[in-house]
Design goal:
Blueprint lengths: L2 H8 L5 E9 L2 E6 L5 E4 L4 E3 L1 H4 L3
Antiparallel strand pairs: 1-2, 2-3, 3-4
């Protein structure tokens, strides 16, 4: 994890890790490259997965 990416995560700018992508049903999932939180593909952008936030 890059130090600049971690700082960006603290400010709310998460960046998807392109090497880790999986599909569950019709939803595409990945993780943030800076902090490792799960992300999900929305209609036009990637965002943090609120469903996974409560499980960890």
């Amino acid at each position: 994890m890059n130090l600049l990416w971690r700082l960006a995560c603290l400010l709310g700018f998460h960046r998807r890790d392109r090497k880790r992508l999986w599909q569950v049903g019709s939803r595409h999932h990945s993780v943030c490259a800076g902090c490792g939180k799960q992300m999900v593909r929305g209609f036009s952008e990637w965002r943090l997965d609120e469903d996974a936030a409560g499980q960890s």
